[in-house]
Amino acid sequence: MPGSSFEPAPSWWQSPATESILCAAATWLVAKFGLCACRFEPFPFDVHLPRIEPGRVVLPAAEPGVAVWSGEPGVELPVRHFGLPVGRFVLVTQSSTTGVGFSPSDRAEAISMMVGVGRVIAAAMLADRSDAGPGAIARPPDGDAPVANEKAWSDHPGN
Description:
By secondary structure, the chain is of the alpha+beta class. It has 2 helices and 5 strands, in the order αβββββα. The strands form 2 sheets. A 3-stranded antiparallel sheet has the order 1-5-4. It has a two-stranded antiparallel sheet with strand order 2-3. It is globular, with a radius of gyration of 19 Å.
């Protein structure tokens, strides 16, 4: 019977709401694709895997600083927010595959589901970073509120 492995991610992913959504998504993916295992990995990634994209599966190209794909089991289902990667689900099948064996309609449904997951992950990242102190990426201010540590642009040399 297919199973699901869900490894804890960094602390900002461990809020009850975020963790439950990731676990529910992994469980759904295991059932949808008949996987041996499914895990979430936060961005950046150490290893390239074949990646499910709209209408196609992209085989990984060599990239400096990242191990080249050499047939490891697993297919990447990207989790993005506004086009930026925030993580991925690694779909592990019984045998090594590039993911083309998954039906196009199932792949499209999984990609569609990741839009909501990406939104939740990005919100968790921003919520955690807002209290992280200097140098942290925080939420943008509302409306015309002044930005902390903002110096008038007209004071900058050359303006």
